[in-house]
Design a protein that fits this description.
Shape: globular
Radius of gyration: 10 Å
Number of strands: 2
Distance between the termini: 25 Å
Order of helices and strands: EE
Strand order of the largest sheet: 1-2
Helix content: under 10%
Number of domains: 1
Number of helices: 0
Strand content: 15-25%
Length: 35
């Protein structure tokens, strides 16, 4: 039910913000995250 907190990825729009990205979860535009 979506409680995984294991993959924080830095936001490209706000470098102080991190987004939770999961291969089985939300899909992000590649321009929105710094990999």
């Amino acid at each position: 039910f979506g409680i995984c907190q294991g993959c924080p990825i830095q936001s490209a729009a706000d470098e102080d913000k991190f987004l939770l990205v999961c291969k089985d979860g939300p899909v992000f535009n590649s321009k929105e995250v710094i990999l």
